[in-house]
Specification:
The complex is a heterodimer of chains A (about 120) and B (about 110). Chain A has strands at about 5, 10-15, 20-25, 30-35, 45-50, 55, 65-70, 75-80, 85-95, 105, 110-115. Chain A is mostly beta strands and about 120 residues long. Classes of the chains: A mainly beta (about 120), B mainly beta (about 110).
């Protein structure tokens, strides 16, 4: 069984640039969510995709956007990068969205540094 | 809104010491509660969970009991090992919503 994989693992951008992060969900999982983890903080929910539709969003501005593809892989796009966007971006996959007991499986993250 | 508060770290212990990491929560409904662990250089892994009041989650010698009356979910282990050194996150999830995490507690165990 393949786990959640993310790419790239590390990247450096400058303010104002755009970035795309990618995630392959665990085999059989149809839901992907993205979290931002700033240094020394807990992960913060960005949004969730279920069957290619966004079905939940945290307190992040519209310049954070995403996609989910028919194979349930996903992208996180961030436009007009700001210094505060520097963080570890985590992707998590799960099966379904209903209820509150399902386990999320996390990737190792993409570490973004904005200079 | 919902929130999770966990004790500040770092927590530094000697091998075989007893561990407690406190976690309290605020929620409007009936959340499930989780402890996740992040080992150095790795992604978050689910350590244990409890889905209703008085449930006890356990895994790898760690335990936590869902206490509705005190809105707590403290993590305990009777005898820590060096390999337990990691960052521990308490989290909650209400139906159909995202995980809400605490800020994390760093545990460092020395031999």
């Amino acid at each position: 069984e393949t786990g959640v994989t993310q790419s790239p693992t590390h990247l450096i951008k400058t303010r104002g640039q755009q970035v795309t992060l990618r995630c392959s969900s665990q085999s059989g999982h149809n839901t992907v969510s993205w979290y931002q983890q700033a240094l020394g903080q807990g992960p913060q929910f960005i949004f969730q995709y279920y069957r290619e539709e966004e079905n939940g969003r945290g307190n992040f501005p519209p310049r954070f956007s995403g996609l989910q593809f028919p194979n349930y892989s996903s992208e996180l796009n961030v436009n007009a990068l700001e210094l505060d966007d520097s963080a570890l971006y985590l992707c998590a996959s799960s099966l379904g969205t209903s209820g509150n007991t399902g386990e999320l499986f996390f990737g190792e993250g993409s570490r973004l540094t904005v200079l | 809104g919902d929130s999770v508060t966990q004790m500040e770290g770092p927590v530094t212990l000697s091998e075989e010491a007893f561990l407690t990491i406190n976690c309290t929560y605020t929620a409007t409904g009936y959340p499930s509660l989780f402890w996740y662990v992040q080992y150095p250089g790795e992604g978050l892994q689910l350590l244990l969970k409890a889905t209703k009041a008085d449930d006890k989650g356990s895994n790898k010698g760690f335990e936590a009991t869902y206490r509705k009356e005190t809105t707590s979910f403290h993590l305990e282990k009777g005898s820590v090992q060096v390999s337990d050194s990691a960052v521990y996150f308490c989290a909650l999830r209400e139906a159909g919503t995202a995980l809400i995490f605490g800020k994390g507690t760093t545990l460092s165990v020395s031999s």
